[in-house]
Amino acid sequence: MLLLFFGTLLLILSQLCLGAAYSEYILAPESRTLIPLEVYGVNGSVEDAASLTKGHRGTTIFRGISSVTYDFKRNIAGLVTVDIQDVSSKDAYLGVTFSESNLWINAQACDATADAGLDSPLWFNVGHGAGNYTAEKKHNRGAFRYLTIVSNTTATISVNQVTVEFTAAPKQDLQAYTGFFHSNDELLNEIWYAGAYTNQLCTIDPAYGDALPLLGTIDSGDNITLPETTPWWSNYTITNGSSALTDGAKRDRLVWPGDMSISLESIVVSTYDLYSLRNSLESLFALQHADGRLPYAGQPFPQTTISFTYHLHSLIGVSYYYKYSGDHAWLSKYWRQFKRAIGWSLSSVDDSGMANVTASADWLRFGMGGHNIEANAILYFALNQGVELASLLGDTTAQANWSTTAQRIKSAANQHLWDDTIGLYRDNETTTSLYPQDGNSWAIKANLTTSTSQRSAISTALRSRWGKYGAPAPEAGKTVSPFIGGFETEAHFIADRAESAFDLIRLQWGFMLKDPRMTQSTFIEGYSTDGSLHYAPYTNDARISHAHGWSTGPTSILTFYAAGIQLTSAAGSTWSIAPQPGDLRIVDAGFSTNLGDFSVSFRRNESGKYTSLTFRTPVGTKGNVRLPGVDGVLTGDRGERVKLVDGVASGLGGGSWSLE
Ligand SMILES: *[C@@H]1O[C@H](CO)[C@@H](O)[C@H](O)[C@H]1NC(C)=O
Ligand SMILES: *[C@@H]1O[C@H](CO)[C@@H](O)[C@H](O)[C@H]1NC(C)=O
Ligand SMILES: *[C@@H]1O[C@H](CO)[C@@H](O)[C@H](O)[C@H]1NC(C)=O
Ligand SMILES: *[C@@H]1O[C@H](CO)[C@@H](O)[C@H](O)[C@H]1NC(C)=O
Ligand SMILES: *[C@@H]1O[C@H](CO)[C@@H](O)[C@H](O)[C@H]1NC(C)=O
Ligand SMILES: *[C@@H]1O[C@H](CO)[C@@H](O)[C@H](O)[C@H]1NC(C)=O
Ligand SMILES: *[C@@H]1O[C@H](CO)[C@@H](O)[C@H](O)[C@H]1NC(C)=O
Ligand SMILES: *[C@@H]1O[C@H](CO)[C@@H](O)[C@H](O)[C@H]1NC(C)=O
Ligand SMILES: *[C@@H]1O[C@H](CO)[C@@H](O)[C@H](O)[C@H]1NC(C)=O
Ligand SMILES: *[C@@H]1O[C@H](CO)[C@@H](O)[C@H](O)[C@H]1NC(C)=O
Ligand SMILES: *[C@@H]1O[C@H](CO)[C@@H](O)[C@H](O)[C@H]1NC(C)=O
Asked: Where does the Alpha-L-rhamnosidase six-hairpin glycosidase domain lie (predicted)?
């Protein structure tokens, strides 16, 4: 008992140490009570607007119809309170509007959560007199950087204070990260932490999920003119428990399995909030149909929409959750459901060896039917994850069936869909003109490819299509998808093209972080290849989410590939250290799992030689090191000396090691 206590204490202390490194980059607030940082703009007669900003005292007085927009300097979330000192009339009202982007700042409306129109302001009937007026919990705004306070009558209103109670990541100690990343490239550092923070905003109290009040009731062709706005609220309970991971902070505030195929790993390397991930995954399995099918999205999304790929993403979620938690009991509990779900997927596999997709809902790309390359690559990936889990659980029947099925998919896809002259896979065999970003990125990620030269060809071809704002997804029109871009980035690393991976992160995520229309703190869900903040699948630009977990790929990718820390079995009982530093000269990175801390630190000189390299893994674990082109000896903290052979050393024990 005492030992267990000290063990836990040590684990907590070591986690504190790990996350505390570079904490100055953390964007999550220190306190949950937030005060505006700056005045962004004033309209009408307002006295001393700045007194409501941080570090100021005094009263802001609204005289007649007027408004002030405040800037929190980063995307935040929460419940607004206005502290009223005095009002001149019982007819007085004070409204607040929210916007993530400065494009949608408006004293008469918020940005949008529905397919069309803009969201209504929240109005406080401050005519009642002095006191605090707080928004109802269902009017918790999931993401905004700009808050506009508006007075719509001739009254004079004195305001003492405006605060926002930060509601995101309700069970987290907001700045207690379990992971960190630092390099000599400031942009990459900021991108890593913005990704981590984006996922914190997407983690919510599940009692305040999207109620989808307007789904199906507004025709997206309608033009709603101001000040006609639509009411909004979030009060649908989307999962069990008290915290859940959703797709987007402002919208949809729902559990989406596809999004988790990116966000889950970025959470693992930053906050390790397994509790929220588990609640979300369980909510999807609670909706499994009798035939094994898993939902496109969690409740209350209509269960009539069927998706071959999102179904598979839930299975990938199970595999990832197990990989990073090592929670064997949980895996066993869901194994029957996992197998039934694979059964549903396999019912689409035809004589060609590939799945013929008829359940076409996906990440809003078009043409997801037939022998589609993305769907088959994801199926191949999910089957191989399943094979590993089956072997772990001793389920030899499943293991044999799935590995044979997977091999057939691989050979059929390469026979029918690979186009050697272009160096890319076709979308399906009925077309020669579309070579999708998603299917080609997934083919590399899933190891559907058969050779290094094939992976190089894909990496080169994808790179040749980049535009000024990032990597296009032609399967979704004129779209840059930071979701699929995350898979493409990883694909470049797997193809041993680290420079392309770094270049894409700097180009695309650099744009998303630094452009003045963005929040400079969280990542947008999608935009146009011409750089406009229009996401082709939507008609309403104000609806685009600026904090979407599926856009946070670089956070885990920098940790797994630039620093090169990869877990190869449950919670890191085996691991691999294989940095691909590209042009980086300094990297310090790490994260913790239930087994302990994993970290890597290296320095390289101008010619790319390591001048120092150390790493640490938990005692009792085992792993390999891969440092291509490096000669030398690794020395362990218990005096072990292991020579690198062709840059590789295998079977190292956990502990601290350094390169001599
Ligand atoms: C102030 O009013 C002008 C003109 O109506 C409008 O363009 C601007 O966005 C408003 N600014 C704020 C901060 O409300
Ligand atoms: C509003 O609440 C704050 C914090 O609890 C308190 O300091 C303040 O006095 C309240 N304002 C009024 C007018 O009661
Ligand atoms: C101000 O807004 C409130 C809430 O929408 C509304 O009830 C009131 O009629 C408005 N007052 C004026 C003068 O427009
Ligand atoms: C919306 O506006 C567009 C462009 O002004 C117009 O073509 C369209 O007919 C309008 N739609 C409706 C439903 O009024
Ligand atoms: C959610 O809020 C709406 C709008 O106020 C209300 O009609 C509905 O009953 C609420 N639902 C729950 C579960 O509280
Ligand atoms: C919540 O937990 C109950 C009891 O374990 C379970 O039956 C139900 O399916 C769960 N619901 C969700 C949405 O996870
Ligand atoms: C095959 O791919 C093309 C391009 O994406 C698409 O237009 C077509 O609908 C796809 N076929 C099926 C059966 O989905
Ligand atoms: C896929 O299945 C559908 C529905 O059964 C069928 O119409 C279509 O021809 C099949 N596509 C291929 C490429 O076999
Ligand atoms: C795998 O199992 C399914 C369903 O039981 C069966 O239809 C299929 O033929 C099996 N495939 C292989 C390769 O054994
Ligand atoms: C990828 O597939 C090839 C066979 O095409 C295999 O030799 C290789 O081991 C696989 N790589 C991984 C990482 O599984
Ligand atoms: C980098 O270090 C290597 C090995 O010590 C050395 O040969 C090389 O000259 C160094 N390069 C620079 C630019 O210092």
From this structure: 240-459
